[in-house]
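Good day; I would like, with your permission, to put a structural problem before you. A protein sequence and the structure tokens that stand for its backbone fold form the material at issue. Thank you for your consideration; the sequence and its tokens are set out here:
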Amino acid sequence: MARLSFAAQIGDWITRVEEAQEAVFKESVQELVIQLNDQLEMMIYETPESPNYKRTKFLQASLMASNSEMPRLSVNNPGTPAIPDFGQIELVINDAEVGQTIYLGYTAAYGGYVHGGTENMAPRPWVSLVAQRWGSIVAEKAAEVKARFGL
């Protein structure tokens, strides 16, 4: 299947105003980050706590962004509470050019086990669930930007 350009996903109107294309692109990625955070909260942090699992929010705080490569699942949980700070992600999004790939990934080494599950833990595929929404996120942001720009 051929991959459509970002502009083709949105519609021809987007090519008439460069700022509109940039707004849809960056706002869509920001919304994706919000939904990743919300889905993780719902699937993990809002569920009853297991007696063998100490909730530090380290997984949530390990979300990173890059313009060059996918962040790697490589950082061990320090076992102390972590406070998510998405400033680094905002910088990457704001620095990105329209059409550039923005890689979003978790660096908590155990993130893959949480997502895919283990023999002792059911999968919690929050990333897959949110990634499937990309098309609708872009469509929603495109409609908002189109109205805001009067196009």
